[in-house]
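Weekly structure sync, notes
Attendees: PL (lead), two postdocs, one rotation student
Agenda item 3: pending single-chain targets
PL asked that the sequence for the first pending target be pasted directly into the notes so everyone works from the same version. It is reproduced below exactly as submitted, 261 residues in total.
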Amino acid sequence: MIELTDIHFAWPDAPAILDGVSLSVREGEKLVLLGANGSGKSTLLKLLNGLVQPQSGAYRYGGEEVTPARLKSGEWTRRFRSEVVLLFQHPEAMLFNPTVRDEIAYGPRQLGFADAEARAERWLAALGLTPLADKAPFALSGGQKQKVALAAILSLDPRVLLLDEPVSSLDPRASGWLVDFLLDCGKTVVVSTHNLSMATELGERCLVLGEGGRPLYDGPLPEALHDRALLESANLVHRHRHRHDGVEHAHTHAHDWESSR
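Predicted structure, written out during the meeting:
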């Protein structure tokens, strides 16, 4: 469904953000992007959503290359935008409608779906947002905004979910609902996180990005989580000194993952 070939990307007058990323994702696969802050995870998701274009390399969706020209093609773009959706890490970037109900219905309305209002009601109920339906999104808490943004993309019934740190603002109940939904939804999911304890809940395969968006590993997630050298090189675990019984030594720590085992 998704194929990237030797992707390179950098913002103007800045170091490389993605450096030679090649990737294939099958339909229905759950892929976890692992990397420290600044490793290019968010940029890679934006590229998969067609919001940025690589300086070199190719991106194919469903066998068709995603190019600026094709993204200007009305019918193709309409299909792509309804099938491939992105949840931003900071939901404020997505919310601009006067009410929560309007926010969730906005995408289906723009794409001309006749059941836009019914879709909004469905996802209001699914995410426990019905009591907030007539409130302004900007007046909500961070977790509530994250739920609204999530409902807004799910209302399109997409084929591909691109999720950038999706549980960063969610409470435990909402996080559990999202994990269960992703497990059973049958959709293709590419989800980023730097939280190793959550990674195991989100998929079985991972792509690890290092400094400058350099791919370090692509394979089974459990193997990556047990490779301390890999995690340290990706800045996903830290090494520091401490004392036991007066003896000082140093080793790596990944507290969030270790505490969940």
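Discussion points:
- DSSP finds eleven helices and twelve strands in the chain.
- Residues 2-258 form a domain with the Rossmann fold fold (CATH 3.40.50.300).
Action: rotation student to compare against the earlier draft before next sync.
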